[in-house]
Each structure stands twice: as structure tokens, then as C-alpha cells.
Design brief:
By secondary structure, the protein is of the alpha/beta class. The protein has 23 helices and 18 strands. Strands 1, 2, 3, 4, 5, 6 and 7 form a 7-stranded mixed beta sheet that branches. Strands 12-9-8-14-13 form a 5-stranded parallel beta sheet. It has a 4-stranded parallel beta sheet with strand order 17-16-15-18, covered by helices on one side. Bound molecules: 2-acetamido-2-deoxy-beta-D-glucopyranose (5 copies). Residues 118, 120-121 line the site of one 2-acetamido-2-deoxy-beta-D-glucopyranose. This is O-fucosyltransferase family protein.
Length: 589
């Protein structure tokens, strides 16, 4: 009977977005101070500039002083909206409030111990009775085993909420282990989105076939449970692949409709293909060609890319994009610009592909070559960025190509979105998420710290050496100063994650007397040769290993920091020096 309960899950619906609009606003405002460190005003400029009443990601005009400030900032100059900054950019998913766990309807979906189906009724008798064969491999499909594994999991991981448990499957070869996957959300997390973990459970069995959990493996050890299994339609109860809380009217697909990332779920970011000639030839395309963004900072690239994508959406055209990325020297270990990177190393192409109309340029040009003549596909060339998207709405040609010359800054793509276009083109910020493969590393680090750690972000590097602009930074971020600043804020013996650009982490050794310190490089195994990340990115890269580069490091470091329970920033929390040096913080605060 309990099998029926197992087959259903929370009823999340499309109303999610509307409900959370107001909360998103709160979230944005609340996060403003923090965001200043991460991107300066950039992300918020974008948010404000692209606000539409029906878009839940964006900042409503009513939300207080900071939005007024942004508006003023925006209207003061169109050119000033792009601010180069080396810090990893906030992306769309960052602006989704975590109503998943903080708002009441969703709390109902959290699985607690008391919710688990009672297992010591009939099934227990069956498995513990005549059928008991203590020598056989553990039957991972046994409801008792499942129940036990769920209980052990809920009891072991106190700082996360569970939303779904996958049915256990056979673990290692010995027959004494089972693998199980689950979907969770950290209790205190401020953002929307789920995480997936799968672990290997070592299970012992008594002669009378009662089970006990000997050990729960580390993060992502339960590889056999990793695959996302499709729920077979028309089957009920017994074939359900997971347990989640029942809501009678919901379907198993309901929660997947939620547009939130699920970190840890298998990524399928294969390039889209056009199914047929007629499909190809009846579609309309936009491509940006050339331009000065190559090898510029990632933020510059994104600012430009989102302008192109915004224009494509405005014109109802498919954006033909080049997924190859040139990594700027500022993030590379060689200190040289590096060609041959892939958009998918850094961003979630699956999300982009599934929620917008995009096509890789190689595929596009192949098809174009095949059918252009036959189907009389025509090209409309635009060589001046001052030709606004609004002037292109009447163009009927299959392809609009914007060509950019060699002269900076007029050859920057984002110039298309300046001026009067700024109020028309919506940069589709919500389509851009960070790579879930990178976020999986973040989740791995946070999981190893049991989602129960504090963090301090310590900026040193160039800035600490430049005493003219940052007179106090070096002293304020010394280990002694840190110890004294943290004393009142972070309890002794806490796990402390130090996100920093200081390359010699032994510099912070004095902090060990009070805290258990952790640094990004302590978790190297999550991206080195034997890691999932390494295997997956290598596959994506035609078998060539991918380097965990400076941009990825910065992104992961920042995201781990953001998942700490207490977060202390360099600027404001550790020093009164301004982020941008001199007296610049006066003007923005
Ligand atoms: C998200 O919404 C909840 C519910 O109103 C609110 O309490 C919470 O502060 C918001 N989260 C953030 C990070 O602002
Ligand atoms: C934008 O800035 C560039 C370079 O600083 C300048 O040449 C250009 O005139 C500016 N454009 C506008 C619209 O302010
Ligand atoms: C299940 O077992 C526990 C203790 O082993 C017992 O307290 C509980 O009443 C049992 N429940 C059912 C439904 O038999
Ligand atoms: C990946 O996604 C594409 C497009 O949605 C689909 O055609 C393909 O079958 C998927 N591949 C796998 C292995 O699921
Ligand atoms: C794009 O499509 C929408 C909805 O179908 C329509 O309202 C809009 O006018 C179209 N825009 C252009 C430029 O064709």
C-alpha cells in the first residue's frame, strides 16, 4: 500500500514565479551589499535595465532606495553601464529566491523521518521470515533496506532538507552495498535550486535478516544510482523510482517544470541539431560576426553575448553562436590568452539550449551551404552597430548578419544595445546559468563540510601591495588582524572556508589555532584526474583534458563562499578601504 505514496511528489507548478516576485525583490535588495563585492554594480544594472513586470528575475521599480540609485546611475549615461570587473559574474540562477525551502508550500515537500513509509509491517515479515538467506547479496530493492537507508541519510545530514530519494540499486561487487541518490536543498540556503547526491551505503545483515548501515560513503560515491531514471508512464506504485512527499493531484513531472537548476544531475549539453530541411529553411536567424570581444574579460564577453541573445529574442530569431571561447590571459595559468575553450566549460548550455533558440555556427553553416541556394535563403548584412534592432523588425531575410570591424570600442557587440535600444532590448539574464559541472564541485566542497561552515573572503594580491589606493588592506587582512576581527563573529573551532587570491595559504596558518581552515586547493581531487569533472569535460573537449583555469577557480571559490552560514567580506567586514581603492566607496554607498 505504501508504494502508492511513494510514487508521487510535491506539486510545484508554474505559479512559482509569480508568487516569488516580491521575494525576489527583497532578495535582490538584501544582497546588494554583497553583490558589490562580486560584480560591482554590473549585475544590478543589468537587472534594472531589463526589468519587465512579468519577469520574476528582475527588480521591480518599487524596491526602495537602491533601485532609485540604479535608475539614476543608468540614466546618467548609457556608456557607463558596462563596468569591467574580474570577479565572476552573478548569473540568472542567483536571482531566484530560495522559496523552495523558505516558503510554506515548499516546506510541505521536505521529507522528514516521520514521513517515511512504515516498513516494519508486512514487508518486514516477508523478508525476515522464510526467505531469509543471510549469504545472498543484499537485495537493494527490499523496502526495508530502502527505509533504513533513508532514515540513516536524514539522520546523518542535519543541515540539508531532502526532497526526493531514488530507489537504491546494487552498489559494489561484493553485494554488501547499495547506492542511493537523493535531491536536497541546504537548510539555510538563500537561493533556489536543488542538489543531487548519490552515495554508497555499506550494509550489514544479521542472521535473521535485519539490516544495519555500517557506513555511508563520501559525496557522489554511489555511482550506480547516478543515472536519472525515467518514470515509466502508466505504471503505479511498485515501479516508482523514487520517494517524495505525496500530493494527490501532482504528477511526477511537476517538480521538473520548475525552472531551477539541479546541480549534480547528469548534464546533457550536446549541440542542438535542426531536424529537417524544411525546419531549417523556414526559420530566421541572427549571427554576430567578428568583433572586439575575443579574449576580453569574461564579463565583457557575457555582456556582449547577452546583448546579441537579447536582440535575437526581440527579433524572434534563432541566435547562431560560436561556442568557442577565448580565455583572457587574466584567468589563464600561462598568462597568455588561450583560444579553444568552450562556452560549456563555464556556463550551462543545456539550460540555454532548452530555454532559448540557439544554434552552433558550425551546424548552421553546414546546413546553410546545403540549402541556401535551393531554398533561396537570403542574407541581410548590417555593418554599423548604430542600425538598431528596431530598424530590423521588418527584415524578411533568413539571416541577419551583424558584422563588426577592427576598431575598438565601436566593434564591441554590446554597443548594439546602447542608446535608445537600451530601453527596448531585454538582456535575457535568466537564460545564463553557471556550468552545473562547476557547481557540482561547489556542491562537493560544501557537502564535505556538511553544509555547516563559515567563510571569509580575503582579497590580497595586487591590491594589498598597492598601498596608495588600499592603505590598510594588507594590515587588515594579516592573520593577526583576521584573528581579532573574526573573534566576535565566528565561533571557535568552526570550519572556516577561506576564499582568497593569496596563493600561499600557509600565510593564514595562525588561524588554525582557533578554526579548522579550508581552502579551494584542499579539494583538488574534485577536479583532478580521477574526478567526474575531469572525465566529463574531457569528453566534451574531444578527449583532450581541460584545465581547471583561473576563471573556474574564481567561480568555485566565490560560490563556496556564498554557501557558508556566516560570510565575511573583505571590504566592509575586514577593512574600511574601498573595493575600488581611494575614496570610491563614498560615492556608491
Ligand atoms: C526569500 O523569500 C523569503 C520569503 O519571503 C524571505 O524571507 C527571504 O528573506 C528571501 N531570501 C532572501 C535571500 O532574500
Ligand atoms: C562611450 O564611450 C566611448 C569611449 O569611452 C566614447 O567614445 C563614446 O562616445 C561613448 N558613447 C556614448 C554614447 O556616451
Ligand atoms: C515498527 O517497529 C518499531 C520498533 O521496532 C515499533 O515501535 C513500531 O510500533 C512498529 N510499527 C509498526 C507499524 O509496526
Ligand atoms: C541530449 O539532448 C538532446 C536534445 O534535447 C537529445 O536529442 C539527446 O537524445 C540527449 N542525449 C542523451 C544521451 O540523453
Ligand atoms: C515576435 O513574436 C511576438 C509574439 O509572437 C510578436 O508579438 C512580435 O511582434 C514579434 N516580433 C517581431 C520583431 O517579429
Amino acid at each position: 500500500m505504501h508504494d502508492n505514496n511513494r510514487s508521487l511528489l510535491l506539486n510545484r507548478t508554474g505559479t512559482f514565479r509569480a508568487e516569488t516576485l516580491g521575494q525576489t525583490a527583497l532578495h535582490l535588495v538584501g544582497n546588494l551589499c554583497f553583490a558589490l563585492f562580486v560584480v560591482g554594480v554590473l549585475a544590478f544594472t543589468i537587472v534594472a535595465a531589463t526589468y519587465r513586470a512579468d519577469d520574476p528575475l528582475l527588480l521591480p521599480p518599487s524596491s526602495s532606495a537602491s533601485s532609485a540609485k540604479l535608475t539614476a546611475f543608468l540614466t546618467s549615461s548609457t556608456n557607463a553601464t558596462f563596468r569591467p570587473d574580474d570577479a565572476p559574474l552573478r548569473t540568472g540562477e542567483d536571482f531566484l529566491n530560495s522559496s523552495i525551502s523558505s516558503v510554506s508550500p515548499d516546506d510541505a515537500a521536505v521529507i522528514h523521518l516521520a514521513d517515511l513509509p512504515n516498513s516494519n509491517s508486512s514487508s518486514s515479515a516477508a523478508s525476515g521470515g522464510a526467505d531469509c538467506d543471510a549469504a545472498a547479496p543484499i537485495n537493494c530493492a527490499d523496502p526495508d533496506v530502502f527505509h533504513l537507508m533513508m532514515c540513516a541519510t536524514i539522520e546523518s545530514f542535519r543541515d540539508v532538507h531532502f526532497y526526493r530519494f531514488g530507489k537504491p540499486v546494487r552498489g559494489g561487487d561484493g553485494g554488501g552495498s547499495c547506492d542511493m541518490a537523493w535531491r536536497f536543498h541546504p537548510k539555510d540556503a538563500k537561493r533556489a535550486g536543488f542538489y543531487k547526491d548519490y552515495r554508497r551505503f555499506e550494509i550489514a545483515r544479521s542472521p535473521s535478516c535485519t539490516y544495519s548501515i555500517v557506513k555511508i560513503g563520501d559525496y557522489h560515491t554511489g555511482v550506480n544510482a547516478r543515472k536519472k531514471k525515467k518514470q515509466r508512464k502508466g505504471d503505479h506504485g511498485a515501479t516508482a523510482e523514487f520517494v517524495s512527499k505525496k500530493t494527490p493531484s501532482s504528477s511526477s513531472q511537476a517538480s521538473d517544470l520548475l525552472v531551477v537548476p539541479v546541480v549534480g544531475e547528469a548534464v546533457n549539453d550536446t549541440l542542438p541539431v535542426v531536424e529537417s530541411e524544411s525546419k531549417f529553411s523556414s526559420s530566421r536567424y541572427l549571427i554576430y560576426s567578428g568583433g572586439g570581444e575575443r579574449c576580453k574579460s569574461m564579463n565583457h564577453y557575457l555582456w556582449s553575448f547577452l546583448c546579441a541573445l537579447g536582440e535575437a529574442q526581440y527579433l524572434n530569431r534563432t541566435l547562431v553562436m560560436d561556442l568557442t571561447v577565448c580565455l583572457s590571459s587574466k584567468y589563464s595559468t600561462t598568462n597568455q590568452d588561450e583560444e579553444g575553450k568552450d562556452f560549456r566549460f563555464y556556463f550551462d548550455f543545456e539550460h540555454l539550449r532548452d530555454s532559448a533558440s540557439v544554434l552552433d555556427h558550425r551546424q548552421f553553416w553546414n546546413d546553410w551551404a546545403l540549402w541556401q541556394k535551393k531554398d533561396r535563403l537570403s542574407l541581410h548584412l548590417v555593418e554599423d552597430f548604430r542600425v538598431t534592432p528596431m530598424k530590423l523588425t521588418k527584415v524578411k531575410d533568413a539571416l541577419i548578419m551583424r558584422k563588426f570591424g577592427a576598431v575598438e570600442p565601436d566593434n564591441y557587440w554590446y554597443r548594439v544595445c546602447e542608446g535608445e535600444t537600451e530601453s527596448v532590448i531585454q538582456r535575457p539574464w535568466h537564460l545564463l546559468w553557471k556550468s552545473r559541472r562547476l557547481m557540482d564541485i561547489v556542491s562537493g566542497i560544501a557537502s564535505r563540510l556538511n553544509w555547516d561552515f563559515d567563510s571569509v573572503h580575503v582579497v590580497r594580491g595586487e591590491k594589498a601591495r598597492n598601498t596608495e589606493l588600499w592603505p590598510n588592506l594588507a594590515a587588515d587582512t594579516s592573520p593577526e588582524a583576521l584573528l581579532s576581527t573574526l573573534r566576535d563573529k565566528i565561533k571557535d573551532r568552526r570550519h572556516l572556508y577561506i576564499a582568497t587570491d593569496e596563493s600561499d595559504t600557509s600565510f593564514f596558518d595562525p588561524l588554525k589555532e582557533k578554526y579548522t581552515t579550508h581552502y579551494l586547493d584542499d579539494f583538488k581531487d574534485l577536479w583532478d584526474k580521477n574526478s567526474e569533472w575531469y572525465e566529463e569535460t574531457k569528453k566534451l573537449n574531444n578527449g583532450i583534458p581541460v584545465e581547471f583555469d583561473g576563471y573556474m577557480r574564481g567561480e568555485v571559490d566565490t560560490e563556496v563562499f556564498l554557501r557558508a552560514k556566516k560570510q565575511l567580506e573583505t571590504f566592509n567586514d575586514l577593512t574600511s578601504d574601498c573595493k575600488d581603492g581611494g575614496n570610491t566607496c563614498r560615492s556608491t554607498s
